[in-house]
């Protein structure tokens, strides 16, 4: 609802959800702001304009209207089992009060011999049939058991139970009063009534009450032998309320069943009259009281505006309104028609959608190979395209993160990031986020990417005022970017921004955007309210569509999965978070249910460690860094193992012409030019760096003989030296035409 007020020279549109004194005002101080901030004075003095200032001719009023629903189902429809038990206790007390009232009235009923039945338009024309009362009570049991079955399998069963208990409590409380204040003569001349008691003591009254309770107030089991409970009909209350519950909380496409129960309830009411169990006025009053109470209650429950008690809400003057507010204050909106089994079925019985992968420690370690699988000191983490549905555990595992990439997932909400004080870049593009929230603690955040989400609440950017280091913000592809004045509003609210949607924010642009800020904000709030209404309607449409698709899917046989999947992908659907989640589940289900022979598995070439001639290959499967030194008498291999890799996972095998190191099943192998002494080889590992040093003495080490230095007795010229003796001719170690001497590194 938008109110237009014409005053002075122009009209101003005032949104119903705009709070001029609330925390969303432009001059509101953020919880993380402080007076020493370079943006403090700029935020504390918002720009003023003639149209938006209180001193102008525009008249502004405040209308308190609850914002549309945007919570998750667990918050919108809480179980609140304690309240359900309280409602059950309330029902038991009022039912007991009704039985006590009947026990008292029984002794006040006019004598049947002296006072006949009152004149009745229906009873005077129909002869009493005692069997009709039994038929009516059998139909009551059918309707009640059907309601119990429906409520049991309803997804929000505790809310429905609370409502039924409270409605019955109010009806029985009013019935206990009406039957007591006005006692009518017995309407049937054939119905058995127990003899009256001369002195109705408290013990007799309580005994009668418990006898009535043991028979649940029915005559078919012989427990209801007391008369006088006429205004109004309890049979009619039960039948009518049962039909209303079935029609309200069962799918609308089951309209044939609704008509069947309507006919059953009508038949039960008529049978009560045929048996002369009640006067016609009793039935009419019971119908009126039950239907009006049921429809009034559900009108209040389905309209959050009526949850507030004010001078304009006259329904709030009902005497039971305080109980209604207590039981319904946390239930937000109409209850969806969803059903599930209260008990978990064996996996072989239930067709469950595949569970999407969550954010696990194993996944984080898999993505931290660049940091030697250490997540405690991880500074950059990429978790894109993992179908993650919730951000969790990141703040506890990776507090040193500076870059977090979560794009192309199914995340609906920004949460559990408050411990990442060093985070500078957060990318959550292509997710299901609908609101900017919970980012205030990210003190070092410089770049935030929210591209292609479902953000419609543009005023949520005001929560980023405390992120003083924020320089780049991306909102491209969100519904809020279609609002008029979107860019001007954002750069005014966030003066620390340097780039918005990849475009630089200039000083002149910021000065122009500061004009008419309040009026621009009011219009944005109006668009937000309309977007929330459209979004709620979209949720209802998509939910019904998904329910129909699931029912069609269950109608197929197990061997028609390919046909099911094909029909799903051919159907048109709205672009919304619910559809993206359903598409991800179908994609995962299609991958799980694909027959193993449908696609030929890629045959992996067998790993070869040796050539056909027996020469060893050089391999580095674990992709480790290493240093190899060829000394005259030994070979040294310095292998750069991970620092925290358990030594028990490493195997070293030194053979005469090669050395092999196996790390967690991956082979590192190096061919040697000369044979080594395997029995004298050694292996050591550094506790500081984790590197492993393998020393392999050569079988025939090179010997360098240095001739003795002969001291000359005279200072004259010495004869030319004949050269070193016993030296090794290095030209003979590796011949140029010997291509198989050393294999290539692969």
Automatic annotation (TrEMBL):
Major subcellular site: other
A Pfam family: CS_DNAAF11_C
Membrane topology reported for the UniProt record: Multi-pass membrane protein
Domain spans labelled Sphingomyelin synthase-like: 227-299
GO MF annotations, alphabetized: ceramide cholinephosphotransferase activity; sphingomyelin synthase activity
Location in the cell: Cell projection, Cilium; Cytoplasm; Membrane
Source species, domain of life: Eukaryota
Domain Dynein axonemal assembly factor 11-like CS: 598-698
Signal peptide per UniProt: none
InterPro entries, sorted: CS_DNAAF11_C (IPR056496), Leu-rich_rpt (IPR001611), LRR_dom_sf (IPR032675), Sphingomyelin_synth-like (IPR045221), Sphingomyelin_synth-like_dom (IPR025749)
Transmembrane parts of this sequence: 85-105, 131-153, 165-186, 230-247, 259-279
Positions of the UniProt region annotated as Disordered: 15-56
Cellular component GO terms, alphabetical: cilium; endoplasmic reticulum membrane; Golgi membrane; plasma membrane
UniProt-listed SMART domains: LRR_SD22
Annotated GO biological process: ceramide biosynthetic process; sphingomyelin biosynthetic process
Keywords tagged on the record: Cell projection, Cilium, Cytoplasm, Leucine-rich repeat, Lipid metabolism, Membrane, Repeat, Sphingolipid metabolism, Transferase, Transmembrane, Transmembrane helix
Biased amino acid composition, Polar residues: 24-56
Family: Belongs to the sphingomyelin synthase family. Belongs to the tilB family.
UniProt-recorded name of the protein: PAP2_C domain-containing protein
UniProt organism field: Anopheles sinensis
Lineage per the UniProt record: Eukaryota, Metazoa, Ecdysozoa, Arthropoda, Hexapoda
């Amino acid at each position: 609802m938008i109110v237009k007020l014409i005053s002075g020279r122009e009209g101003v549109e005032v949104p119903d959800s705009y709070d001029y004194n609330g925390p969303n005002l432009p001059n509101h101080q953020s919880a993380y702001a402080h007076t020493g901030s370079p943006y403090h004075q700029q935020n504390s003095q918002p720009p003023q304009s003639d149209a938006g200032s209180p001193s102008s001719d525009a008249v502004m009023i405040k209308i308190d209207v609850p914002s549309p629903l945007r919570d998750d189902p667990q918050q919108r429809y809480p179980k609140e089992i304690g309240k359900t038990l309280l409602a059950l206790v309330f029902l038991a007390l009022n039912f007991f009060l009704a039985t006590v009232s009947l026990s008292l009235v029984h002794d006040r009923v006019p004598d049947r011999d002296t006072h006949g039945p009152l004149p009745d338009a229906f009873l005077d024309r129909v002869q009493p049939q005692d069997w009709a009362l039994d038929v009516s009570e059998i139909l009551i049991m059918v309707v009640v058991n059907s309601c119990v079955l429906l409520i049991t399998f309803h997804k929000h069963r505790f809310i429905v139970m609370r409502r039924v208990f409270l409605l019955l409590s109010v009806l029985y409380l009013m019935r206990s009063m009406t039957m007591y204040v006005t006692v009518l003569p017995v309407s049937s001349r054939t119905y058995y009534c127990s003899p009256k008691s001369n002195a109705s003591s408290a013990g007799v009254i309580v005994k009668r009450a418990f006898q009535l309770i043991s028979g649940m107030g029915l005559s078919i089991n012989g427990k209801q032998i007391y008369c006088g409970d006429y205004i109004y009909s309890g049979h009619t209350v039960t039948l009518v309320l049962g039909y209303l519950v079935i029609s309200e909380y069962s799918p609308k496409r089951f309209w044939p069943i609704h008509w069947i129960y309507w006919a059953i309830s009508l038949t039960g009411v008529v049978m009560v009259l045929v048996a002369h169990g009640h006067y016609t006025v009793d039935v009419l009053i019971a119908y009126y009281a039950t239907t009006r109470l049921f429809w009034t209650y559900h009108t209040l429950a389905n309209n959050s505006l009526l949850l507030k008690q004010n001078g304009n809400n006259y329904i709030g003057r009902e005497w039971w309104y305080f109980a209604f507010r207590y039981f319904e204050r946390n239930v937000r909106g109409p209850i969806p028609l969803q059903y599930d089994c209260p008990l978990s079925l064996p996996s072989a019985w239930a067709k469950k959608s595949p569970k999407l992968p969550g954010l696990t420690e194993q996944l984080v370690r898999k993505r931290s190979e660049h940091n030697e699988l250490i997540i405690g000191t991880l500074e950059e983490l990429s978790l894109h395209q993992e179908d993650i549905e919730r951000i969790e555990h990141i703040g506890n595992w990776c507090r040193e993160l500076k870059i977090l990439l979560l794009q192309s997932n199914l995340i609906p909400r920004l949460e559990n990031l408050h411990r990442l004080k060093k985070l500078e870049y957060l990318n959550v593009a292509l997710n299901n986020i609908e609101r900017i929230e919970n980012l205030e603690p990210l003190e070092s955040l410089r770049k935030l990417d929210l591209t292609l989400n479902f953000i419609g609440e543009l005023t949520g950017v005001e929560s980023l005022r405390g992120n003083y280091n924020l320089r780049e913000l991306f909102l491209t592809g969100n519904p809020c970017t279609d609002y008029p004045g979107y860019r001007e509003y954002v750069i005014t609210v966030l003066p620390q921004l340097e780039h918005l949607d990849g475009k630089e924010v200039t000083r002149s642009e910021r000065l122009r955007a500061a004009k008419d800020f309040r009026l621009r904000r009011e219009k944005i709030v109006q668009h937000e309210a309309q977007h929330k209404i459209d979004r709620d309607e979209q949720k209802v449409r998509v939910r019904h569509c998904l329910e129909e698709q699931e029912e069609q899917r269950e109608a197929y046989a197990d061997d028609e999965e390919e046909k099911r999947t094909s029909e799903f992908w051919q159907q048109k659907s709205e672009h919304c978070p619910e559809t993206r989640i359903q598409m991800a589940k179908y994609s995962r289900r299609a991958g799980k249910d694909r027959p193993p022979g449908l696609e030929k598995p890629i045959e992996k070439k067998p790993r070869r460690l040796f050539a056909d001639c027996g020469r060893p290959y050089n391999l580095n499967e674990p992709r480790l860094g290493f240093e190899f030194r060829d000394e005259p008498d030994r070979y040294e291999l310095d292998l750069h193992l991970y620092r925290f890799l358990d030594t028990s996972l490493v195997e070293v095998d030194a053979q005469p012409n090669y050395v092999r190191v196996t790390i967690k099943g991956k082979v590192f192998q190096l061919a040697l030019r000369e044979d080594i002494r395997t029995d004298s080889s050694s292996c050591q590992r550094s506790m500081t760096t984790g590197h492993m040093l393998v020393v392999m003495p050569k079988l025939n080490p090179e010997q360098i003989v240095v001739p003795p230095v002969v001291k000359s007795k005279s200072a004259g010229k010495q004869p030319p030296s004949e050269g070193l003796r016993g030296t090794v001719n290095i030209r003979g170690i590796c011949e140029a035409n010997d291509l198989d001497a050393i294999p290539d590194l692969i």
